[in-house]
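User: Here's a structure from my thesis project, written as structure tokens. My advisor, Dr. K., wants to see whether a designed sequence matches the one we expressed. Can you design one independently, without my sequence as a hint?
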């Protein structure tokens, strides 16, 4: 019993020391893990864009006079590697918080550890409900629209337009894909007649698309990452199969996801969005897009300015900066979390009109409304005003 008490005391002292160091630091140190290698390496741009955004912030004077450093490490989207890298960032590098981790499964693998250490896991690039459980995991927050919410909107819209729809889903066999299944069924119920999964490590999803077609569905949701969405759309085009198709918002980039298929082959594709498409000429003279293009050119010249992923990183990085600014000189992890939960109706650069981000102590879903979008062969076109559940 004495040994246990000493261990608890040591842990408490360590946490208190970390808090004092954070409060007194001249530099704000943030950690990040993304797949710079492996099958999902496309999303490595999230790490590079995050570093680039805070380079811009530093050139502008930093946050309350402090420079921000982002230590970004490769986890290849493999949970065991994520655990290894996050432990290094927390225990060796002593980062104040983790930001913009990519991947539901990978970020989930360290969620319990980070909450036990009381290290904020901010704006995970996932819309999984795993990061919207403030009671169980108060230090873990999502940065993307909730997947279940998104899929529920799709389900309701599908049935409103076609009450007799037969819906099939291709989904990644993890928490990310399963969130879409739950949401779609909540919105469309028994109209969901086919569910076919793939593993993130599968080299192709061609066989799954063939199987999905054989079920006789007339409407499809691709709850998949960019690589698998491209593969799916290519195979559907080869087969001459043209169901009404919705895709996960995380894979809705015109370039490269759709352009790698052929823009003329994906006319009519549907998705949901909260971010302006930087390739859309509608926004050519928009101040946000001008700022975005100037930022990419100066701070991330090797990045693709056409990628909606980089635009999304700019928006959520601005939200992170807002939280850090609101924390003032109290950079304790507890205060960082407090400031996040007080973020209300934040209008980040690159948000579509009418879209804002809000958090509260009991609601970690950052977005309450989204735009339904249809691809016209060149750009995503809004289908009316923003919609909610």
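Assistant: Designed independently from the structure alone:
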């Amino acid at each position: 019993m004495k040994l246990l008490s000493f261990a608890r005391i040591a842990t408490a002292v360590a946490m208190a020391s970390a808090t004092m160091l954070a409060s007194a630091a001249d530099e704000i140190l943030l950690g990040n893990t993304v797949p710079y290698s492996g099958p999902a390496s496309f999303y490595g741009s999230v790490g590079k864009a995050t570093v680039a955004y805070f380079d811009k912030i530093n050139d502008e004077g930093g946050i309350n006079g402090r420079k921000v450093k982002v230590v970004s490490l490769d986890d290849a989207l493999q949970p065991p590697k994520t655990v290894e890298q996050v432990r290094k960032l927390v225990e060796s590098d002593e980062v104040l918080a983790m930001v913009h981790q990519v991947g539901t499964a990978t970020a989930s693998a360290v969620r319990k550890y980070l909450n036990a250490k009381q290290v904020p896991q901010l704006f995970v690039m996932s819309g999984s409900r795993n990061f919207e459980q403030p009671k169980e995991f108060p230090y873990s927050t999502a940065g993307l629209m909730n997947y279940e919410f998104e899929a529920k909107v799709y389900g309701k819209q599908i049935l409103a337009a076609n009450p007799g729809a037969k819906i099939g889903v291709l989904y990644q066999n993890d928490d990310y894909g399963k969130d879409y299944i739950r949401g779609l069924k909540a919105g469309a119920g028994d109209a969901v007649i086919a569910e076919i999964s793939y593993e993130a490590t599968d080299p192709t999803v061609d066989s799954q698309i063939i199987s999905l077609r054989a079920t006789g569905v007339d409407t499809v949701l691709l709850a998949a990452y960019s690589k698998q969405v491209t593969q799916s759309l290519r195979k559907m085009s080869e087969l001459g199969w043209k169901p009404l198709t919705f895709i996960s918002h995380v894979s809705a980039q015109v370039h490269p996801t759709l352009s790698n298929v052929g823009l003329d082959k994906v006319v009519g594709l549907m998705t949901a969005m909260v971010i302006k498409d930087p390739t859309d000429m509608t926004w050519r003279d928009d101040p946000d897009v001008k700022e975005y293009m100037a930022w990419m050119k100066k701070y991330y010249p090797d990045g693709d300015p056409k990628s909606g992923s980089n635009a999304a990183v700019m928006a959520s990085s601005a939200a992170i900066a807002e939280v850090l600014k609101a924390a003032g000189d109290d950079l304790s992890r507890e205060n960082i979390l407090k400031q996040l939960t007080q973020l209300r109706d934040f209008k980040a650069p690159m948000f579509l009109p009418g879209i804002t981000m809000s958090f509260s102590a009991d609601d970690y879903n950052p977005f309450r409304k989204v735009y339904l979008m249809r691809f016209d062969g060149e750009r995503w076109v809004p289908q009316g005003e923003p919609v909610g559940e």
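When you compare it with your expressed construct, this may help: Residues 2-145+286-341 form a domain with the Rossmann fold fold (CATH 3.40.50.2300).
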